[in-house]
Amino acid sequence: MLQSLGPSPSAPPGTCAPGFHVLVVCTGNLYRSPLAEWLLRQRLLDARPVIRLSSAGTRALTGTPIAATAASFLLERGADASGTSSRRLTKDLVENSDLVLGAATEHREAAVRLSPVWALTRAFTLSEFARLVRAEDASGVADPAARFKALVRGAAARRGSERVRPGEDDIEDPLGAHPEEVRDCLVRIEGLVERIAAGGGARGGGGAPPPGAGGGAPPPH
């Protein structure tokens, strides 16, 4: 699912367009990745059009609407995600991203398999990046794109410095789960997004973007 915080000029594979592009990945591109994408968009609204956000799924059926539960969760927070639809993860999507955030380890690994050299130091799980990101890595950096690039370098250098149990960083797929479990999953993602956005210098706690400021439904693919 794609909605840019600003113009998204195309770029050759492996050469990101100007600015900074974050790609969030899950399996179906129905719950976890579109939720994180939209929440990040709200938190980073001040950084538009420099920071661009999109999402995809490793086994997504192109054109499937966002899950109703995720859409309702976003609507409670002032984001209207109706009209968005899923798309499949591709090598080009990975190589045109500066940061790939997977809902689980399998999604990070899928991105690395598609483009090992490009994604190895740019792909993390959402939980991993939220844990490793440090605002001080970009201390004094005002430009949003340069700031996020510094955060990615810092997180990549810090990777492996902490012991993590297998599966600890994975956000389970809520598809078919009990409503309370689905909500718990969405709340967990929201907390991780808050930590990442704070590292990126976001001001405020999110909430509804002003009318016409990019919080509505993204254009069709």
TrEMBL record:
Residues 198-207 have a biased composition (Gly residues). Residues 157-176, 198-221 are annotated as: Disordered. Residues 159-168 have a biased composition (Basic and acidic residues). Pfam families: LMWPc. Residues 208-221 have a biased composition (Pro residues). Residues 20-199 form the Phosphotyrosine protein phosphatase I domain. GO terms for molecular function: protein tyrosine phosphatase activity. It comes from the Bacteria. PANTHER family: LOW MOLECULAR WEIGHT PROTEIN TYROSINE PHOSPHATASE (PTHR11717), LOW MOLECULAR WEIGHT PROTEIN-TYROSINE-PHOSPHATASE ETP-RELATED (PTHR11717:SF31). This is Phosphotyrosine protein phosphatase I domain-containing protein. It comes from Streptomyces luteolifulvus.
